[in-house]
Design brief:
Elements: H1 37-40, H2 48-59, E1 91-96, E2 99-106, E3 109-113, H3 114-122, H4 129-138, E4 144-145, H5 148-157, E5 168-171, H6 172-204
Antiparallel strand pairs: 1-2, 2-3, 3-5, 4-5
């Protein structure tokens, strides 16, 4: 049976979904991935190590030996040997505290053989030559390093042992300072020993 046209409900019209068309000026998405933030922290080529070192030097890190030192000052300063020229290698025997010691004249300054002076005057006062070098550092005295020719001459004179290939020189003034320091230390040591002995004797009595 046919349905009258008046009873047919009209179908509601649904608007089509909106479609956004990209503009022609919009750039397509990049296919390359952006660098990782951790990679961006790397210093420029050729300067990374310098930047790392300078950062620690300024901060005064205790792990770096020259941290906090003024610019231009070496970390470990080792005196250079005496210049090997004929006038520096002229050796003569001079009198020191009643004994003869070998000496050289460098830049107008008379320098005596430190190991020989130690054997003659300091050996009975201190434990060894290493103690002398410790005292020199504390007294801020820097001995002069012999050159190879001076060492050869001192070996020939018997001022140092035949197998020694290094030697140091010291001025008369610095040696007197060293001698007085060793003498005073020995006197203090003897005084303390006597005082301790007296205390022990009194306690036993």
């Amino acid at each position: 049976m046919a349905v009258p046209a008046a009873l047919i409900l009209p179908t509601p019209l649904v608007p089509p979904p909106s479609i956004s068309i990209p503009s022609a000026t919009t750039s397509p998405p990049s296919t390359t991935s952006s660098p990782s933030p951790s990679l961006c922290l790397a210093p420029p080529p050729g300067t990374g190590q310098n930047l790392f070192r300078s950062e620690h030097l300024v901060s005064g890190s205790p792990g770096i030996p020259n941290a906090g030192l003024p610019p231009g000052k070496p970390v470990y300063s080792t005196p250079s040997p005496v210049e090997n020229i004929p006038q520096n290698n002229e050796c003569k025997m001079v009198e020191l505290r009643g004994a003869k010691v070998a000496s050289f004249t460098v830049d107008g300054c008379e320098l005596i053989c430190l190991p020989q002076a130690f054997d003659l005057f300091l050996k009975h006062l201190v434990g060894g030559l290493h103690t002398v070098y410790t005292k020199l550092k504390r007294l801020e005295i820097t001995p002069v390093v012999c050159n190879v020719e001076q060492v050869r001459i001192l070996r020939g004179l018997g001022a140092i042992q035949p197998g020694v290939n290094r030697c140091k020189l010291i001025s008369r003034k610095d040696f007197e300072t060293l001698y007085n320091d060793c003498t005073n230390a020995r006197y203090v040591e003897s005084f303390v020993r006597r005082v301790g002995l007296n205390v022990c004797t009194d306690s036993r009595a």
